[in-house]
Amino acid sequence: MKYHLLTKKRVLTGDRPTGPLHIGHYSGSLKTRIALQDKYTQFIIIADMQALTDNAINPIKIRHAINEVMLDYLSVGIDPVKNIIFIQSMIPQISELTILYLNLVNISRIARNPTIKSEIQQKGFEKSIPAGFFIYPISQVADITIFDADIVPVGIDQVPMIEQACEIVDTFNNIYGKNTLIRPKALLSKNGNRLPGIDGHHKMSKSLKNGIYLSDSPDKIVKKIKNMYTDPNHLHISDPGKVDGNPVFTYLDQFGTDKKKIANMKYHYTQGGLGDVTIKKYLIEVMQDFLFPIRIKRKQLSKDKKYIQDILKIGSEKAQEEAEKTLKRVKNAMNIDYF
Ligand code: TRP
């Protein structure tokens, strides 16, 4: 294990535990993690401290969500032996490093981050922003750099996070010593962004309630797909329909294996003569096939709370060891290693 840590490049990735994960998380990031887990030392952060920045009154929800997220990870094939999966709050070194970084950045610089800007709007924080929430982009920089991550897989909307990280790394290295911190690189996901929602909104998101969850029951999946947004101008079967911006086809592209059949359906849909009921029926079939093995595995895993607990404990211990090494290096560079 030590050998791997030394020789393989490092990836850092993770999620805020605020609830179970949906198929947008799967195609946007979980799939990438499964692909990367053999080649890299992959750290997966379950960012509970970050989740608390806008859920401070509800820590029980976060605690519950950690378990849900773990079940999602393991049931889609994230391997607990190949990855270091850990809970952010169990690594206090991250919080310490965050405080040190906060001295290297201006409030106006954080406010310019497009991600935080849109989240402030979305959450109605314009008038009063919780201070912890406002600085979470900086704690995210600590999440990445404390593990000497070389690579951070992100969607296009998360690129500013890596830019912020590189700025802090450069500032730190310039002041305290050239080679203290490693500059991370963004690895852009091939699918571009996350999946659209079942309501046609450009992003599937928990707060918009437009997601299909990896843990949804077969009945729920049928209901959700039956009510899915398609092409609003496709009123009669004979009308020509649009494939672009039609989430039914986006999902088919992502999860369907019979590419020929999908291409054929697209052709007929655009020509007119293919109804929404037919394409939805096929999508139901495709999604049930995709989610069936995940559901079975989830059910098995949910019986064994201790197993999940153990994975997190071992992962957090390992992560702490690595974080401590970096923090020592940082404090030494800064001359605050007093005793
Ligand atoms: N912000 C990410 C999310 O919303 C979670 C996260 C926390 C993260 N720290 C990170 C992702 C560091 C990548 C790198 O899910």
From TrEMBL:
Signal peptide: none annotated. GO terms for molecular function: ATP binding; tryptophan-tRNA ligase activity. It comes from the Bacteria. It catalyses: tRNA(Trp) + L-tryptophan + ATP = L-tryptophyl-tRNA(Trp) + AMP + diphosphate + H(+). GO terms for biological process: tryptophanyl-tRNA aminoacylation. The keyword Protein biosynthesis applies. It is an enzyme of class 6 (ligase). GO terms for cellular component: cytosol. Keywords: Aminoacyl-tRNA synthetase, ATP-binding, Ligase, Nucleotide-binding, Protein biosynthesis. Its EC number is 6.1.1.2. InterPro entries: aa-tRNA-synth_I_CS, aa-tRNA-synth_Ic, Rossmann-like_a/b/a_fold, Trp-tRNA-ligase, Trp-tRNA_synthetase. It holds the Pfam family tRNA-synt_1b. Belongs to the class-I aminoacyl-tRNA synthetase family. This is Tryptophan--tRNA ligase. It comes from Candidatus Profftella armatura.
